[in-house]
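A protein record pairs a chain with a discrete description of its three-dimensional fold. The following entry can be read in just this way:
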Amino acid sequence: MDEVNRQANFALAPSSLTDALYQSLRRRIVNGEIAAGEKLTEHRIATEYDVARPTAKACLERLTTLGLLRRTAHKTAVVPAFTADEIRDLFFARSTVETSAVTTLADQGFVPAEADEAQLLVEAAAREQSFEKQVDADIAFHTALVAGVGSERLTRMHELIMGEVHLTMGRFQAHRSAQSSTVAHEHSAILESIRERQPDQATQRLDEHLANARDRLLARLEAESREAAQSNE
């Protein structure tokens, strides 16, 4: 980022200052405005947002905990770049948590109201062909399914995973490689199986949905790697 942009001030919503700062930085990272490999320091954040260094530090720690930033001891936090193996591992962990949640919900025939609400947003985003809204609604849908189980620990585990999932979705924009209605249809099938108390069918549909999402990300990563190799020839 050039020096002019580094001096820009970003407005924060009138909520908790740390939460507002976190939401703003998270969106910038996910949308690629702050690119993979780019460094985020307390000084940079404090300058760009006109906040105190302790506030900037707290935000960096939160972003790092959720996987949106990485740093080793005494190192500056950076936006991570993902390898193919990391994406596979991320979706393995995600599938493990979400399969448990969907199985539990389907055993009860219970669809959380928040999941239905998120699905309406997914469908609306598909009609509008709004990539950013679709990603946000997709995250909200899966978050609602896990939260609907009512397990605090399962929800915390999922939150840690979904930070990185959100980052990869924004980073690679993999939703753009599928028809806008694809995700909405796959979500609808999962909800139908849950309502009909078909846990095996629900988990199968979830597995297929997550495998499709993973494969789109891997395809985008491979395409970017080929483009980079060709540009270096």
In short: The mean pLDDT is 88.
